Amino acid sequence: LSLWHGGANQRQVSRNEFPALVRVAKAMGLTQQASTGHYAHSVLHNSQTTQTAPIDARSFDWHGWLEQEKRNRTMYLLLLTDAAMVMYFNAPAQFDPLEIRLMLPADDAAWDARDELECASALGLHGPQAQARNITGTRRPTQPGMRDAIRTLMEPAAAFAPSSTNAYAKFILVHAIIVKVIACQKTILLQDGAWQGFNFGLGGSGPATPLSQNDWLDVHSGATSGPLSASNSGHATPTDTAGSLQMAAQQEKKRLGNALDKWKRNWDYDLELQYPPGQSHRRFGFSRDGVHFFYLGRSFFQSQRPSDWTLPADKRFQQVMALLKRIKGFVLGDKEVRGHDIGSVGDISELYGLDDLTLNMKLLFKPYNSLLDSPIAGVRTSL
Question: Quick one: 80 exposed, middle or buried, by C-beta within 10 A (0-12, 13-18, 19+)?
């Protein structure tokens, strides 16, 4: 919260403490699903189990499902916070999205369910006729895995089935792609060695080293080999190493550009299915409003200014917030063509982040009564 509210000292403390939080999460095993016998073990969160066995509503363990979903959503919140550090503050990434071996978040209707029956119904375990509360999600009992979804975005011939990811999952995926775009840009534009995070086994490694072409192929084929080791790189000179990194980053950037375009097509198509124009199911919350970040990712992708990636944290924050506000114009035009609302990012005050950088989180939200026609004046939407 201190990233978005308060002064520069609070933000600095948050940025300093976050790597320790990441280490705790990894030590807890949050990047992987709970194993059999763990209190959070959930059959419906195991893609291998659900592919080989029918899903039986009578054997649905709501407690296990809920505990694993808690772990998943905690992990994805950390992943998104890491992405925010990279995007808004020029911080180095602490996660590689491909190390997240979890299903993407379940539909909101299942997560918000008040009891086992309501959750099972939202998941479709009692048939489509019982899914009246699940309007805006995939209406599926399981979600794609994070690694599989990234693979689908990155492979030119792969495509998402209609409505196979919900709005929150798409928000996570576009941020994962953006983090990799930024890593490529830093490698391409900061040729003086100021950036060492993009590595293909030709030297040191960082906490979120993007994968090489061979590693992507390993992921695609299901192999489990890790990143190329320094011993595999031969006796390359520093010039050879720099040239290899540049070439690899350019190739990776091209794939990421295609992934962004595929993400946008998927967003547009599924929005028609999950949030049909003219209905009252508004996309409340920034994490249901991913299209703005597609345009932000495109802006990062097209940047040719090395200075963008070396600005101090607060200067970069001002720059990106100003860019995000300009992007609202693109989204508004898209909305008028397609008949959709602009989502919660459109509610951010024009004053937020543009003053002396003492942030007021109230400016991130519209008054609650203006959104829901509530009689309670002055109440604002919560996080």
Answer: middle
